[in-house]
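User: I'm writing a short methods note and want a consistent example. For Phosphate transport protein (TIGR00153 family), I'll paste the sequence; you return only the structure tokens, no commentary, since I'll be parsing the reply automatically.
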Amino acid sequence: MPSISLTETDAYRGPHVRFRLTPRETSFYDMFAASADNIVTGSKLLMELLGADTSARAEIAERMRAAEHAGDDATHAIFHQLNSSFITPFDREDIYALASSLDDIMDFMEEAVDLVVLYSVEELPKGVEQQIEVLARAAELTAEAMPHLRTMENLTEYWIEVNRLENQADQIHRKLLAHLFNGKYDAIEVLKLKQIVDVLEEAADAFEHVANTVETIAVKES
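Assistant:
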């Protein structure tokens, strides 16, 4: 009887299919979705801040602080689940990175609102509304993307668009800095406003970190 080579044997096996012989902990998907939904809440509070007079800003900051605490709780729940789960839906380091990056977004948004109140900023410079609009759009896309982690489908457009938005945020940030240093503001005001627009830029960067982590997970799971 003629021998069959390894290559011939593999040909009889048909296409490669990944099988998982153990169940996966699926509650992570719901927790990531909840964390992203909370970020949408934060982005709406940022938008609300734009149209609010100075007397209303403290109350908005209080609601943002509550949203940031809810984000912390969601992140801690993910970490607790990670530490207590034997089987995870994808690599542990990726779960940690994704949860941490989502948490960073809320931290930066809350910091920006808090700084506006603490510094008693009367008028935000023109261009900040564009920063916040970019963040609001990125928040919507992120919240829409999280449920797709279950299947790893229809995610490519998400990370491409978030990366495009981050590039747009970079351009807005540079224009804002140029505006702040054009001599219209005194030195102390420049320092205050620059810190606020810098923190908003960090929030945009954090959205990109989330998108990059999702892309990494999708590539590993494909």
